[in-house]
């Protein structure tokens, strides 16, 4: 009968998160993660094929949730502009909602933005800025015909 690896997997996740937060991806040590989780290095590889997949396991669920949130809020803003005009886009509640999400997932965002050098996520902050720029361009193009009264 195979052993249940759930408990050791949770210890690995806890140790990996602390290791990556402390040392960043590039300087993280599989040996320290193994030692801090109470298993052998070879035991780590029974859970994760490599260090980057371990890192991905920590950030990917939050990243997928954030991207879904971002797309949903962007669509809601677009719908509000279509329905009520350009002034509808200036609601601060979306920014507050995003900041609450980030603080609720602070460690994962810190990993993405500050500790991901050497991973496929190292340019995440740049990609996020590009997404926001693209969103702003779409907003601008959808409101070009709208002019505030003060400009008449």
Which class in CATH terms? Mainly Alpha
Number of helices: 7
CATH superfamily: Homeodomain-like
Count structural domains.
Answer: 1
Given helix and strand content, the structural type is mainly alpha
Q: Any idea what the radius of gyration is?
A: 21 Å
Q: Which key phrases capture this entry?
A:
Arc Repressor Mutant, subunit A, mainly alpha, 0% strand, disordered C terminus, elongated
Report on the structure:
- The protein has 152 residues and is mostly helical.
- It has a single domain, classed as Homeodomain-like (Arc Repressor Mutant, subunit A).
- Helices cover 71% and strands 0% of the residues.
- The protein has helices spanning 6-27, 30-37, 41-44, 51-84, 93-104, 106-114, 124-142.
- α1 packs antiparallel against α2 and α1 packs across α4 (51-84).
- It is elongated and about 60 Å long.
- The termini are far apart.
Give me a quick take on this structure.
With about 150 residues, the protein is mostly helical. It is about 70% helix and about 0% strand. It has helices at about 5-25, 30-35, 40-45, 50-85, 95-105, 105-115, 125-140.
Write the layout of secondary structure elements.
Elements: H1 6-27, H2 30-37, H3 41-44, H4 51-84, H5 93-104, H6 106-114, H7 124-142
Helix pairs in contact: 1-2, 1-4, 1-6, 4-6
């Amino acid at each position: 009968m195979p052993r249940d690896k759930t408990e050791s997997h949770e210890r690995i996740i806890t140790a990996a998160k602390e290791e990556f937060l402390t040392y960043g991806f590039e300087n993280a040590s599989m040996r320290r993660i193994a030692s801090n989780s109470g298993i052998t290095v070879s035991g780590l590889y029974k859970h994760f094929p490599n260090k980057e997949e371990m890192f991905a396991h920590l950030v990917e669920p939050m990243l997928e949730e954030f991207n879904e949130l971002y797309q949903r809020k962007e669509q809601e803003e677009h719908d509000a502009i279509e329905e009520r005009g350009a002034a509808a886009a200036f609601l601060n509640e979306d920014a507050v909602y995003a900041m609450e999400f980030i603080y609720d997932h602070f460690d994962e965002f810190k990993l993405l933005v500050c500790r991901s050098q050497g991973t496929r996520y190292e340019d995440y902050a740049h990609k996020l800025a590009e997404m926001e720029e693209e969103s702003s361009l779409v907003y601008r193009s959808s409101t070009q015909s709208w002019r505030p009264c003060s400009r008449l």
